[in-house]
Amino acid sequence: MARYTGPKARISRRFGEPILGDNKAIQKKNYAPGMHGRGKKRKQSEYATQLAEKQKAKYIYGLLERQFAKLFDKASRKKGVTGEVLLQLLEARLDNTVYRLGIAPTRRAARQLVSHKHILVNGDIVNIPSFTLRPGDKVAVREKSKSLEAITDSLSIQGVKKYPWLEWDGSELEGKLIHIPVRQDIPENINEQLIVELYSK
Q: What CATH number has the domain spanning 93-179?
């Protein structure tokens, strides 16, 4: 499936946050990217604000429009607050969990590790980045991939960040999804209610 491959700094500047892991260009310029970035700033409409929030969530988690819309539809049919359920579904993706565990430095890198069959789920190779994990599922690095430079570098540089819904065994390079995260534990700066309002139109 196609992915965004354009300049990361441009996206980060658009939202004023390092959402693709690039900090460089955010503080340097106090105007928007693009040839009209220095022009008069117009007040955003309600729709534009909602759309921007959806776009930000898509870029953060690395989804395309169709995939994101399908996930929102799934969230809207589940019990609970739709916006929170949407974020929980995004967090339960295999590529995101590999990133959260510190096995990869970015979600993009995590997606590549999964696609190249370096990751096991409950002992079996899973090469689908969008695979949805359930509480109790174990995510591990494949035995022959444990010495892979990309993985060892990520674990040594990044370290293992502590998330209350994940457990990590550094000696086995294996993590476990203990439970689905609650909204206040998810660190992403996303106003999910704006996304719900956009899709409700």
A: 3.10.290.10
